[in-house]
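Lab meeting notes turned into a lecture example. A postdoc, R.K., suggested we walk through two folding results consecutively so the class can see how the record format repeats. The first protein's sequence and structure tokens come next.
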Amino acid sequence: MSQSPPSPPQLHRQLGLGSAVALNMLDMVGIGPFVTLPLVVAAMGGPQAFLGWMLGAAIALCDGLVWAELGAMMPEAGGSYAFLREIYGPSSGGRLASFLYAWQLCCSAPLSVASGCIGLAQYAGFLFPALRNPVAVSGPLAHLQGTQLAAAGACMLAVLLLYRNVRVVARFAWFLWIAMLLAFAIILFAGFTHFHASLAFTMPAGAFALTPGFFTALGAATLLTTYDYWGYYNVCFLGGEVRNPQRNIPRAVLISIVAIFTLYLAMNISVLGAIPWQQVVAGTADNNHLAVAAFMVQKTLGFAVARALALLIVCAAFASVFALLLGVSRVPYVAALDGNFFRIFGRLHPRHGFPHIALLGMGALATLFCFFSLAHVIMALVTIRILLQFVLQQVGVILLRIRQPQRSRPFRIWLYPLPPLFALAGFLFVLIERPHAAVELRYGLFLAVTGSLVFFARAFKRREWPFSPSRI
């Protein structure tokens, strides 16, 4: 009697609520708030920068409710890919929407990973100043700095640690999560034990004057804080590996947003209450972003504690890279498995059952991007994600309610339809109301056009929608 061939490896539901929240928080924090805090203060021109953190949190919470409903309704690996495919039609427009999402993610996700690694390397340069020197005095390596090699090395280390079973990954994530909380604890302790209310709450003249300049500044600040909050949806990319996903996915999304908002706002107040905001802004002039956290801690608790803080921030940055790579590596895998992306990404590791080709591909691109400057690209990344992911989901969740009102929804958006409408308005505000918006919108347009061309050429060759025989 012939035996049936063994079934291919499958993703297993091994992540509980605690691990899901930890991975979300790791992805959200990373290097972001430690780098962008002075930039947010500079954008707003004073301690009223807390408005940027609050507006960013409100947008994140409203968008998080959208993710919670969709994630509980479609608890499978891939996150937005699966959502967009289902919302816009798995046999029609949803194929294009989900392909464009996977297409842009293959560019934007490695750049996001690289930005975390570069920030990590800058903090490592504080601990080891020799890293800031060129690798060679002359020749082609004269323009290569040790921090760039450190960034690339951190990226490769993250891939190496992720190249194993997700249960082992979750255990390691808890250690990184503790390091992240310790970094916040040192900053909050240093700030609040040397707190001066006059520094934190004395606003410059005209701080709340509702002028065009105020809204432009608020848009620029909120763009940065929105980027810092992103990651609350990481659990949706791991939907196929979460236990009891109908309950745990919404809880993980909402718990992580509230927890991170509390930490961010407390950190902003503690830092601005310990050192004048003018000194915080001054650190942005020479990109010395580390001075904000380290200078305040060094001033209040001493140099040794400041070095310990820098080490913990390096760990927090690495944790974010770790969590981000874990989540995004599932998207090309799901798209390839669906027949809507390059099939090589659909392979699972034969022993540990994780998408190793997708992980290696993302890691290789991110390592390459570590050798480029990402100062201006980060803004473009936010633009690309909003246009080709978030806006499509805000509109999509409303369309799905209209088209399929009786569909089972284990979690329903609170106060529907206000949250998706507010999130949509907030994202459009961030896109438009800031300097150089038109230039960065072109990045999103470029990826949309090139992705569409690849999709239609591939569909024509394979005789798929919209070129299937039944439609010709």
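The second example is placed directly after the first for contrast:
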Amino acid sequence: MSLERTQQTMNHYFEVMGRGGEFAEFYTADVTWTTTDTGQDVRGPSSVRDFIVALHNNMSDAQTRRIVVSDGHACLEGDCLEAPTGTNSRISYCVAYDVVDDRIAAMRCYGPIAPMCP
């Protein structure tokens, strides 16, 4: 997939997600989400969407630092407040996306987000 098509897909995905739309339409039928610090795998468009919604609901003050896109791949760097600890500590994470035929086929999250996972 070209850089331009990958960029368009990711831009549209984040736009729909940001306005609360049905972002699972951007997933392949066999999409996966992997939380690398725990090895947790979630499979299928509805399950992945529900997981991401729950994860976002558990993340306080999540901020995207950068999104980098290449041919068929994207990477989001972000941070959020650590799970309710009473401190203002932030944790950093990275989500890597594999994009095939204008759909997201796989996502892998790197970083210590396990306390926020549903």
